[in-house]
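User: Hi! I'm a student and our assignment asks us to look at how structure tokens line up with a sequence. Could you show me two examples?

Assistant: Happy to help. In each example below, the sequence comes first and the structure tokens follow. Example one:
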Amino acid sequence: MGLQTEGRCAYVVLIMAAFWMTEAIPLAITSLIPVFLFPILGVLGTSKVCLVYLKETNMMFIGGLIVAIAIEHCNLHKRIALRVLLWVGTTQKCWGVPFEEYLDNDDGMKAGYRRARVGCLLAVAYSANIGGTGTINGSATNLVLISVLDRMYGIGTGLNYGTWMAFNIPGMLLNIFIAWLWLQGVLFFIEWRERRNQPKKKVKTLEVEKAEKAARSVIVKKYEELGSISFHEFMTLTLFIILILLWLFRQPQFIPGWGDWIKGDRDLEVKDATAAMLIVVFLFIIPAKPKFWCFRESLDGPSESSEALLNWRVVHEKLPWGVVLLLGGGFAMAEASEKSCLSYWLGQKLGTLGFLSPAALVFIITIMTALITEVASNTATATLIMPVLAQLASVVKVNPLYLMLPSTVACSYAFALPVATPPNAIVFEASQMKTTTMMKAGFAMNLICVLVINLMINTLGDYLFDFSTYPYWAEAATSSTYSISSHCNYTLS
């Protein structure tokens, strides 16, 4: 073939990027393109391509999804959601959707209901996107970063479940609060503009209070219908809490974790997928309604078998296999980009940005990432840019986390278009709002959240990860890949 390996790899990447952006074929099917196109073009062998589709990161993702399915299966999610709504209250300020001005007439009531519906659903989409940044398994994009870091730098980067939460949860809470303020401001501005055009319109406070009480009574009724917490819900919640604790204390760094204890002096890796699959197995072992020992209705009766907390039929129906393939396709593309020297070549070209200050570089990267994510899947965006940012960090000699961590989080800051993230698409379809409506409210949130992540990475991020020096683990990775760099320089010359 006349074209060099990195050129053939770039050809496949461009095809996949175009298909991911246009959704000409399903995203999951696009993710399978590397299995046949990389071997045919001589970029990467079939066995090597297939092996990366179920890496440790993907197994952790599958385990987290199965636990989430178990929570939904026992209706624990409804209990938690209704309890939170009762705790928050049903006033319009708490929900962020003013509707009192529309209680004067039927037409106004219909318009107010539509606007309140759009406001509530936008709040759900914003919260889902922002909330997914709080934990490693909160979004598939986060797992892409973890996979790239593990492959290129090993486990010494200092980024784990605990440090991820320590960095991202403060920013997540701040962004959610800002999103609430923003939606309040947008909706109240619309109301103020309409009141100015119709100055004689009156507000019926009594009707508003009745509506709020009616909403609360509906929530209370739904909550009471659930009854007291069942053994099924209790055990599922217990296993979920145990899983979170296992993830947090696998390698907490400030004390030896259980992963360190198992590893000992052996050359052994114990990662988060181990904890996830341990809990998954228990979900299929522990009965939902135990009918033995002290749980029997009658001590004289025989012990009986019971269905487990979760069964495979439910998992098979509800597990989003397409997202699993999407992650796998991204891992295959990243692997091929590294082996073919494409990532190295792109990193060298982007190294011309080294004249910028690190803070300015991060700002440009996060803005570009958020904009790209608006027209492409956020997971696809992360898989495309993470290997390139890793190479760029080695060229400009900054901590790779300083570039890659905010960029990963920015992949979730896409609020303006339905195609950007799954929550956007779901809310857009459910609300039947216009695309322009989502865009008007969303682009400002994009900018606000990008500014917040830039603030956090230069303050809290620097405190947690020490961005003032080029880390030893990045230096070691650069040294270990010197031969690869030499090979790439020879190939590209």
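Example two works the same way, sequence first and then tokens:
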Amino acid sequence: MKKIYKKKYKSEKKKKKHNYLHNNILLYVLKTKKKIHKIFIHIQIIYLINSKYMLLYTCDRNNEKINKERK
């Protein structure tokens, strides 16, 4: 009886430890995911702004070319 109880107790302890570690890892992953997500959104916004400016710039260049050709 005593031995069986000890074995069970040990396995329970291991399970608890494993769950604790698992939860910690999950939390860490979730936290980093949020950070990565924020960074990703930030990069996307920067990219959008840059692409807009590039479009504007190319449009201006094209307009200049067209105007030169007309003259």
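Here is something you could point out in your write-up. The CA atoms of residues 12 and 63 lie 75 Å apart.
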